[in-house]
Amino acid sequence: MSRAPFADHDIVDAVVIGTGAGGAPLLARLAEAGLSVVALEAGRAFRPEEHVADELAADIYWTEERLSGGDDPTAFGSNNSGIGVGGSTLHWGAFCPRPDPRDLQLKTLTGQGADWPLAHAELTDYIRRVEAFTGVSGPSSYPWDATRHYAYPPVARNASAAAMARGCAALGITAADAPAALVSRDRDQPHWGQRQACVNCGTCHQGCRNAAKTSMDTSYLPHAVAHGAEVRAGARVLSFDIDGAGRITGVVYRQQGEDRRQRCRAVFLCAGGVETPRLLLNLGIANSSGQIGRNFMAHVATQVWGSFDAEMRMNRGYPSSLITEDLLRPERAGFAGGYLIQSLGVLPVNLATGLARGAGMWGERLQRLLHQYNRLAGIGINGDCLPHHDNRLTLSDEVDAFGHRKARIDFSYHANERAIDRHARQTMTAIWDAAGASDIFAVARSAHTIGTCRMGDNGDEAVVDAEGRSFDIPNLLVCDNSVFPSALAANPALTIMALSLRTADRYLAASF
Amino acid sequence: MTQPTLVFLHALGASGREWDLVRRHLPDHRCLALDLPGFGDRADEGYADVAAMADDLAAFIRRERLTACVLVGHSMGGKIVTLVAARAMSGEAGLAGVLGVVLVAASPPCPEPITDDRRAQMIGWAADGPVARADAETFVAANTAAPLPEALREQAIADVERSSRQAWLGWLERGSREDWRPAAAGIAIPALIVAGGEDGDLGEAAQRRLNLPLYANAAFRVVDGAAHLIPYEQPAALARLIADHAATVAKTALPAHFVGLLGSARVSRRTRAAMLERTRPLADDAAGWSEAQLDAVAALVAQVLPELGADRALARRIGAAVHGPGDGWRFADLPPDVEAWTRGLATLDALTGGFAAQSPSEQHDWLARIDAGQAGSGDGDGADRLSPAQMALWFQDVRAEIARQWMATPAAMAAIGYDGFAVGGDGARKQGYVRIAADDVEQWQHAAEAQS
Question: Are the beta carbons of B421 and A54 separated by less than 8 Å?
């Protein structure tokens, strides 16, 4: 078996582009199976303690410009896009509910949206593997799934969570400690070292400084490296070499200003819901379906805020320590799908931006609310979003520093998203009212980047097949949130990691 | 406003006493004049190298828990001050209270420009023992523009004589030759650089060439009627300059409890450095605005966050962000950020006949119309304007950027009682929070606030 470091002229079994939730688990799985694999990551490598507990100084967000259009333009950058070895798992919130089985069969059950071309049971099996490998904290008994067990006790509820529990109880809504992809006790992570128990610092989105949070750089990537994989940081992919038979034979990338070429037998493109379709569109490949960039989805992520008499100091504690799944299929809802509610702990700059943008505030009211920071608390949703043909990623005429055209993403809520948003505002306002909040208001927001290289059974309607393989280029596979046929109400990272393991297993089964 | 504490560092062969007259002219300031190891009352400590002297000053700042101070360094002491200022910039614990620097005929971080003859002569004075009376007299005379009054002259000579021989030779043979430039560049702490009008090797030309470029925010003054021993020669004039500089930087002082927390081991060096950087002034060219644009942005600040008024410092910081690397996205219906702001501000001025000159209520009414998509440029107005729909989007960007840049300043964090930056230092275990329930506030949080 050949091992890292590989030379550019070595023909490695696979190049994996991106080291986040989509790329890292499959890198580890392929390496474990004895394949020679190289991961190319655009960003730099971090040690956990290098992360900075400051919202502006944190340097783990993809800040190259994207153009956001449509009636409900979605924010990128720190809102949903990461960079660095570990990708978006460096900054993710670690809120990790499992997808609901009904969400994978939305089309069958509601006539709307799309079905997933894989069974929920199979996905859940991979989810369990991810949870076991990374360590998840959660309740000993999960109200909406009797079969579920979490390895670590739940993190402590902070003030926002306690308020939400109070409000939900008053309304007869079931709430529980949230599944959190972090360890609430010290854990020895094989091939990496000690991940220390979460210390309630509240800065998950700026990067976890004691490795309590699941991040690819402290879990799957060291496992991959221990099994012979090579991770190249600061390596920005520019193009592919494609032979006469239409197969990729090499990946051209730029590292430290130098253009290099890694020869390979297969490519796993795992660059996220924006960069994955953007690269393919820029190269003009793998798009006989015409579906690349279409069906862009972002979760409805509306928040409701209010003021409390008590000092909440919501920056303390794991930010999303309470969940309810009661609203996944509300009665007489008037929409397909549903939403999850979580308690929120938002840091001051993020709050200020949300008030100024999503709540349209300025002047005395904005100022007063910011001064009230320590007495504010909020709850928010992650709501399903249907795929719509006109919500899409296209290429702008403007080019980036690498000569690639920038992404333009047009996103508008349609009737279903508006209905979810309306319903959620009412529900959350009622919860906050029952919890004792005053001066309650909502902040409009959407989150995550989903669906731009959808998977499906039919090459006319999908970019990749049910195993993640391109219908056009047989040795190109895609694994990240771009392959999701529908958005699911659950936050995406856990599902992406599970899909990543599955993609690797299917590839290994088909190829060897 | 509380005036910062002044911390004085003396020159080679001197002691804290060299500042006695200057301090007499600064009755409203708390003044602390140190003896460096090997000099004054600490002569028996022998030679401490440059790093050790800087450690000594940093330890003093920590021991005294200085939460607002200006470091004043004369000659040799200036090199030490610059190195400690650089350490404060890099986020070293306990130095968050360093607000300003005054360099007086200061030795630079690079090798000191002194002729070989002069260095050899001064080394020769200590060849066989401490510097003798006659050589000390020569030294004082050579470093003054005119003879000092007798009592001062005697004091200056006595300080040379009592200096440790090791310390004297150590500085001349090593300390003054050490090159610390890599550690001392781009210091944004506001500095006042003072040169003696009749100084020699460390006079105006050397100060401009060797010290001025290291400081991003520096004022430069020449004191007439003085050579190198300015604190003895022109104490009143020097005290006036120091007081003015202290008053300027006092405006950037943070509440004492906040500085204490920021300087503590609960905060990582990277976090501390990033936060402190935002307390330093930004030069106009770093902001990227024209004077008129700066006025308009400051007026927008006053509308979005009225308590700030027309805050030009924040307007500059917003300019640096707008002209900087960007935050990952923009509205597709707006041009790139710099162009959007340029056109937005131009449209605002065209609509209002000069936005900054309007009354606050007129400004408010215009922004309300813009927010509602009812005000902007018509079709025939050219490519340098924004339409009403674009203006509404741009005003969203304006609100968000103002709120974001203000909220990120330590002053704002102090104002809202935020301590979420103090959740993990650079130790093996991060502190985080132990108590997180409503109204359950930890002792260190209470302690911090009780002092305010």
Answer: yes
Length of chain B measured in residues = 452
Q: What is the domain extent for residue A235?
A: 17-511
> Under an 8 A CB cutoff, do B441 and A349 touch?
no
Instruction: Tell me if chain A has a CB within 8 Å of the CB of B417.
Output: yes
CB A101 within 8 A of CB A327: no
Q: Does B412 touch chain A (CB under 8 A)?
A: yes
- Give per-residue pLDDT as tens, A169-209: 999 999 999 999 999 999 999 999 999 999 999 999 999 99
Domain count, chain A: 1
Q: What is the least distance, in Å, from the CA of A5 to any CA of chain B? A: 31
Question: From the CB of residue B173, how many other CB atoms can be counted at a distance below 10 Å?
Answer: 13
H/E stretch holding A299 reads: strand A297-300
Contact B418 A315 (CB under 8 A): yes
Helix, strand or coil for residue B147? Answer: coil
**Cβ B305–A54 below 8 Å, yes or no?**
no
- Beta-carbon contacts of residue A483 (< 8 Å; ≥ 6 apart): A453, A454, A455, A463, A464, A468, A499
For chain A, the C-alpha Rg in angstroms (whole number) is: 22
Q: How many domains does chain B have?
A: 3
Q: How far is CA A397 from the centre of its chain?
A: 28
Burial class (CB in 10 A: 0-12, 13-18, 19+), A444: middle
For residues B286 and B243, give the distance between their C-alpha atoms in angstroms, rounded to a whole number: 27
Residue B393 binned pLDDT confidence (cut-offs 50, 70, 90): very high
Distance CA A477, CA B145 (A): 80
**Cα B58 from Cα A294, distance rounded (Å):** 59
Mean pLDDT confidence for B171-175: 97
Structure tokens at B320: 């640096």
Would an 8 Å CB–CB cutoff place B276 in contact with chain A? no
The token duo for B399 is 């609100």
CATH code, A465:
3.50.50.60
| CB contact at 8 A, A179 and A96 | yes
How far is the alpha carbon of B54 from chain A, nearest alpha carbon, in Å?
Answer: 26
Which pLDDT belongs to residue B2?
76
Strand ranges (DSSP E) for B186-257? Answer: 191-196, 218-223
Residues B329 and B446 in one domain: no
Do residues B62 and B200 share a domain? Answer: yes
- Distance from A56 to chain B by nearest Cα, in Å? 7
Residue (of A318, A337, A339) closest to A446 by Cα position? A339
Q: Give the pLDDT score at B452.
A: 45
Judged by CB atoms closer than 8 Å, whether chains meet at A203 and B325 is answered as no
Domain hosting B381: range is 284-408
